[in-house]
Automatic annotation (TrEMBL):
GO cellular component, one term: membrane
Stored SUPFAM superfamilies: Immunoglobulin (SSF48726), Toll/Interleukin receptor TIR domain (SSF52200)
PROSITE patterns referenced in this protein's UniProt entry, alphabetically: IG_LIKE, TIR
Location of the region described as Disordered in the Swiss-Prot/TrEMBL record: 525-565
Membrane topology per record: Single-pass type I membrane protein
Protein name: Uncharacterized protein
Localization of this protein: Membrane
Similarity annotation: Belongs to the interleukin-1 receptor family.
Organism, as annotated: Esox lucius
Length: 613
């Protein structure tokens, strides 16, 4: 009864302090409580040195699956204060102990001690909860031995966790023995974990795990109720730090490097470091031994001087990686005849591996000189080749990786047709003289009249009296294609200037494309062999078209003799080419006729405009 009166007095005093010293609380960072309509009182007992948690909620009875605390709760859900009488009779409505931290709706005591005994109050959802905390000295528990605050489980085996002090004499005053225990794994009640794994409480007290996992290494709390003579029920809360270890290994250490017998290259007169890496299985009393031994000429192994201490790294919970290094200050000839052995040992057995040294081969002087020289010559020859064939490379790039064409641009013509006029000759077809039209006459009629292209013909579309060179340059740059009708007469005429102008424009303008159409009188016309060395030679000196002799081209009126321009001679080798055969004249592409190969290829080579007639 006296305890109840004392608690009521403390609550009243704190409410008065909240109004009288509100400014003082704010300056000190206090969170003073505003009283609710309901007040409840509970008691806790803790043991000095334990971790203790007290949440702003009613203690759960045994068998209930409630949380130990709610880590996600906001500060507004749990307003805490501590009330205790100080020497100057002041009462503090705030927590001023650095050992007490807030975690969600709970107070977390990292190392509870006698100074934390007292009354704590919290406000939650309109209810004031009073908690009387009594911290007991560990030696006053009445146990026969000092109880640990931790336990160790073995991975992969079954394990049991005992609640500390549950069978001690601290509850003997009421004659109460063997209380039921409520277990928590961190903030979760153990009974809520049964659906996920085989964990349960034996005899109402012992927490049993049928199979221990690595994740079982956590903080555990156990609660049980203790009733004293005054009739007040106290919740005793104990803490255990549970760790998980592997079972002791049953195999000797395993050599990682050297794996068996290794050889390392060294240089005479230089220092060399030997490194041994060994994998040890877990042992509770872990005491690994790794040593370097050196032997030569049948002499027993001599222990080498090691560098530093053993480097031990935990690879997994069941394995350790150990590194041992030794150094040879100066490699001598005797070391090349020696054997270096790494010996590893644990309580189960030992293992070893060896390293022998060999001299590094000297770098071949020939390799050192020849390799850079060959590389330089290769790069130089590559650069010279690119320089020589730069024109061909540029034209090939323009032809096979062309600029993406559009049907509407600033060009005035679809194609500029360059040719040398030829005279028609009569041919007898079925006993009747007939005339086959030359390609320079047939081509414009098909491209313009049938396919709908716009062509540029110098004698038709340019005004007379202009400068020839300026007209050609304008016509080339105003067209999307340059179509050259190649023939022996063309090769010997001034029309080569039109082709040369187109080639130079192609190097600068990716939108222009050049198409060569070779014409001739035979059934299978082909371009002349290259290089063409001169013009005006006797045409009977060699057979035209023979690959082993240079071609002599006849003069045409208004032509000039001389070799082909270098730009033209090189470009003709790589420019796209079609071959005209007079038999293709009546096999044009129409809506109902696919046409000959010549007309199909010509149609694909033209710009993407024009419609079949």
């Amino acid at each position: 009864m006296r305890t109840r009166v004392t608690l009521d007095f403390l609550i009243t005093a704190c409410f008065l302090q909240n109004h009288l010293y509100e400014g003082h609380c704010k300056n000190k960072g206090a969170e003073c409580l505003k009283p609710g309509l309901t007040t409840e009182t509970y008691g806790y007992k803790a043991v000095s040195g334990d971790v203790f948690v007290m949440q702003c909620a009613k203690p759960y009875s045994a068998g209930l699956c409630g949380h130990l605390y709610n880590i996600s709760a906001s500060p507004e859900e749990a307003n805490w204060l501590r009330s205790e009488r100080e020497t100057n009779s002041d009462r503090k409505c705030f927590i001023d102990d650095v050992a007490v931290k807030r975690h969600g709706n709970a107070l977390w005591f990292s190392n509870v001690s006698a100074k934390h005994s007292g009354t704590y109050m919290c406000l939650t959802r309109g209810t004031v909860l009073n908690f009387s905390l009594e911290v007991l000295d560990r030696g006053s528990l009445g146990c026969k031995h000092t109880e640990p605050i931790g336990d160790t489980l073995i991975l992969g085996q079954g394990g049991k966790i005992y609640c500390p002090g549950v069978n001690c004499g601290n509850c003997s005053a009421s004659g109460f023995r063997g209380p039921n225990v409520t277990w928590y794994q961190k903030e979760k009640a153990v009974c809520s974990l049964r659906e996920k794994r085989d964990i349960f409480v034996v005899d109402g007290q012992i927490l049993q795990l049928n199979n221990v996992y690595v994740t079982d290494a956590k903080d555990y709390f156990c609660d049980y109720t203790c009733r004293q003579d005054d009739g007040i029920s106290w919740t005793v809360r104990r803490y255990l730090k549970v760790s998980v270890i592997a079972r002791d290994t049953q195999v000797p250490p395993r050599m990682i490097y050297p794996h068996s017998n290794e050889t390392e290259e060294v240089e005479l007169g230089e220092p060399h470091t030997l490194e041994c890496r060994v994998q040890f299985g877990f042992q509770k009393n872990f005491n690994p031994v790794v040593e370097w031994l050196v032997s030569s000429h049948g002499n027993p192994g001599v222990l080498m001087e090691h560098i530093g201490q053993l480097q031990v790294n935990l690879s997994t919970i069941e394995e350790f990686n150990v590194v041992r290094t030794a150094q040879i200050p100066e490699v001598k000839l005797i070391h090349l005849d020696s054997t270096f052995t790494c010996l590893a040992q644990n309580s189960v057995g030992n293992s070893s591996a060896t390293i022998r040294l060999k001299r590094k081969p000297k770098e071949s002087l020939t390799l050192v000189i020849v390799f850079p020289l060959v590389s330089m010559l290769f790069l130089a020859s590559l650069g010279i080749t690119v320089h020589i064939y730069w024109l061909e490379i540029t034209i090939l790039y323009r032809v096979y990786w062309p600029y993406r064409e559009i049907t509407i641009d600033e060009k005035e013509f679809d194609a500029f047709v360059s040719y040398v006029p030829s005279t028609s000759r009569p041919e007898e077809v079925g006993g009747v003289h007939a005339t086959k039209e030359p390609l320079e006459v047939l081509l414009p009629r098909v491209l313009e009249g049938t396919w709908g292209y716009r062509l540029c013909l110098l004698e038709r579309d340019l005004l007379p009296g202009g400068a020839y060179t300026e007209d050609v340059v304008w016509a080339v740059h105003s067209s999307r294609r340059l179509v050259c009708l190649m023939s022996p007469e063309y090769m010997a005429s001034t029309c080569l200037f039109e082709l040369e102008t187109g080639i130079r424009a192609l190097q600068q303008n990716a939108r222009l494309r050049i198409l060569l159409i070779w014409t001739g009188t035979g059934p299978n016309p082909r371009p002349p062999p290259f290089p063409v060395t001169g013009l005006g030679t006797d045409p009977t000196a060699a057979e035209p078209g023979h690959p082993s002799t240079p071609l002599s081209l006849p003069r045409s009126p208004g032509t000039t003799a001389g070799p082909l321009p270098p730009v033209v001679r090189r470009a003709i080798r790589v420019l796209p080419t079609l071959y005209w055969n007079p038999r293709d004249q009546g096999r044009m592409v129409t809506s109902s006729n696919p046409g000959s190969r010549f007309w199909r290829s010509l149609r694909k080579a033209m710009p993407p405009r024009g419609v079949l007639g």
